[in-house]
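Hi everyone, sorry if this is the wrong subforum. Our group has a chain we'd like a structural model of before ordering constructs, and none of us has done structure prediction before. Sequence below.
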Amino acid sequence: MSMNERTLLVLLCLVSATTLLGLPSASAAEAAQDEQLVLSDLAAKVFAASIAFGLAALAAGIAISGAGSAGLAAATERFEMRTMALIALAFAESIAIYGIAVAFFILGV
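Answer:
Right subforum, don't worry. Here is the predicted structure as tokens:
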């Protein structure tokens, strides 16, 4: 499975799960209008948070793969470059941390 196929599969799963959360069931159809809006609002928040964290984690993975391989190659040639490589990896990992922080802000946790 190529990278594009995996990305498409993940997005398809997210969209289908969000659609199922947003669809009113038979009992929700009998409930008040504001209850349906709450469910739809929750689904929108979950969808936005999952997109925020998912894209941040994907970006962090891509950054770590590039910085990690370049850092190992540089550390092999010059031992002093090891510290710089670890700093670059820490910055790349912070992208995922920022993504989960944004997801928590979106969810209001």
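For your construct planning: The radius of gyration is 20 Å. Residues 16 and 95 are 26 Å apart (CA to CA).
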